[in-house]
Design a protein that fits this description.
The structure holds three protein chains of three kinds. By secondary structure, chain A is mainly α. Helix content of chain A is 62%, strand content 1%. In chain C, a hairpin with a 2-residue loop joins strand 8 and strand 9 (191-194). Classes of the chains: A mainly alpha, B mainly alpha, C alpha+beta.
Chain lengths: 421, 275, 195
Amino acid sequence: MVGLNKSDFKNPVINWIDTRMPVFTLMQKEYGSFPTPKNFNYFWNFGALAMVNLVLMIITGVFLAMNYAPNSMLAFDSVERIMRDVNWGWLIRYAHMNGASMFFIVVYVHLFRGLYYGSYKAPRELLWMLGVVILLLMMATAFMGYVLPWGQMSYWGATVITNLFSAIPLVGKSIVTWLWGGFAVDNPTLNRFFSLHYLLPFVIVGVVFLHVVALHITGSNNPLGIEVKTPQDTIPFHPYYTIKDSVGICVFFIVLALLVFFAPNFFASPDNYIPANPLQTPAEIVPEWYFLPFYAILRSVPNKLGGVMMMFGAIAVLFVLPWLDTSPVRSARFRPIYRQLFWLLVISVFALGAVGAHRPQGVWVVIGRLATLYYFLHFLVILPILGKLERPLPLPESISRPVLGGGKMPSGATAKPMEKA
Amino acid sequence: MRGLKRLSLSVAAAACAATLASAAWAQAGDKPAAKAPAHEISTADIPVPPLPHIDWSFNGPFGTYDRASAQRGFLIYQQVCSNCHSMDQLYYRNLEGIGLSEDQIKAIAASVQVPGGVNDQGQPIERPGKPSDHFKAPFPNEQAARAANGGALPPDQSVLELAREGGADYLYAILTGYADPPPGVKLMSGMNYNTYFPGHQIAMPQPLQEGSVQYTDGVKPTLDQEAKDVVTFLTWAANPEMEERKQTGVRIILFLIFLTGVTYAVKRRVWSDLH
Amino acid sequence: MADTAAHSSHPGGHSGAGHGPGDGTTKRDFLKMVAGAGALVGAGAIAWPLIDSMNPSQDVLALSSVEVNLAPIPEGSGITVLWQGKPIFVRHRTAAEIKAAEDVKLSDLIEPQSDADRVKPGHAPWIVLIGICTHLGCIPLGNKPTDPRGEWGGWFCPCHGSQYDTSGRVRHGPAPLNLYLPPYAFENDTKIKIG
């Protein structure tokens, strides 16, 4: 459709632009008046938090790149120079380093919120799958970023992870050589990882855009998991959720600041402060905490190819989750059995995290295998069957009913924010 | 994973109590084997005791470096450590951070000869150090360092505090942890027994003894004091930004708490429209 | 702010449409202002370290000063040395050049400054300048004997034709200012230290 936009904005400059390119109308529609379920709880902050976190990572990353030298002879020293000589370099580097951990915390909460409230179910399957794509891109970006300081963990992490591909029959070895650009992890590897580490975040921005587009077609899920039925069920995104997200963003920055200023190496491995040494593997080699559950799955399988496939399968299974869960009810609030199994899944993922941090000996092997088994059982067996067997609790009529019906609160008297319903 | 290791243990506890119980059982099962009076004991089987926890001046959110202690520590580095250990990331000018004056730093830098480029004939020359020079390394390269130390490479000490699990406490424990090997333990040649070193066999001979250095400020150079001083210096060297970081952090956190409060108040106001 | 008809039934939401009790509205506005100001301060607190990180770092600032041996420079010629990444002109002036520089009437100058103010007392033969044209940053010619030195016998900038005299003062535009003087001092009669 060709034609000028009829802009409602009064400011003449904005109106002039908006008539020719309706970005302001678009923003107003998608983030201003966008009808949003009125019953979000604070778990719905985490999408916005992830967005803020992504921006933070890109900005700090761009400034780090101004001083970082992607060369195996210089990388370690250039990071130390950032820490010591560049004005506020320590702050930017620690913010980037801990920002990565925060990013995974935020995204994992976002993901488990989706699992709990059934946000992956029709019609939001594509929205969910785009989210899994973002998670994969984040993992690749984080992994390559961790290689850049060229410490011992950087080097050996890169070696171990790239060697996963050697499990592929026939071509595995060639693929690994190709990934390395040599016959071991070395300067060519570092160079390409830096290039891709700089590129991928912008790819993530692109997929996040698609994620939001998909979200704004289907509309948001909500804690009750029922569809919006009347305009009374929704409130405009601004100011209600802009201000509520702002509260979450403030808390997010407090947690980040506590890490950056008072425990900057809380998530860090001491070994990465030792320059990379291709002749000596550290005694305890573990990935960053956010990969530990997947690492545990890898090690739980005694077969090389099998372990690699299970590890990637742990994420692949999320892609088909919308079709594995056969229950028509979204929110775990109305699925008494699913709710308990959800927590069992959470426990097994935490257990896998603990297993991944310890040497695969004794009881850790047993726990690792049990948790791995449950992880896949949960998605591949339990969810398809449970949907048919479980008797969900009665669903409320609409989003506004339980809120409005739940005792007429005098305005401002107790002022219990209704989102806690 | 400095903090995380402890955390992951407690997470495991929270996640699965049975897990921990069985882990304890597994450990208990392991121990008798280690303690069995074999006629020759491998040092790898001797458990490492938990690290001592020292009340460092730089602990806590308001901690600062004890300047006098760090300066004494630098003296130890100069007279003892620097014979084998490099500190490549540091410049002499950095010593301002432990309270040395510009003139003191100039004098310290000038006391070493550093490569000074080439002369008009193209021959490499040496010149006295300047504050803008890196700390001079004891050996020109890794091979020379190994050759002079029985094949072992003395690690660079610039970020040693960050590069060891346990940080300052670990370094203190190593410096004070030298002991005679327990009966039945045979050390490899050139190795020394250390209570806290992983595997207990460390190539570095005990570096500090009582009276290893003469302090000029009247402090008694006991082994404990020397270890604390040099660890304070090494912690500063690895984290020269720490004081600025913590001070900035306190201000930022206070500001963020205020901002969170105000934002939450606005949020309550905005949402009070809905009823 | 535009509101679509579909959502006009929604309560409040737009600053102009406040319908709460009067005091509530003012309190909210005040709170909003505080929160907004706080957010601005926060954004500034994030922006400043990033901006400042692009300023010269500590190792760059600490770059050592440069010592120059004057003995090998014959009268009438100059050398160029590098200090903080910038060319420094060191010229050994002849008696005639010194006289020319000293005899100029200050009123003839674009940026009036006496020659005595531009050399160290007792070291009139030596003029030490930052060799960057004050117009747009080119390096003027004139330090080598074969270079054109312009009408005033000093330096000539090839980019836009600015000319400097033997004291490094601008005599012909477009440069607006005299060549800058670096901080330097005489260690002894034949050695200076720049920086």
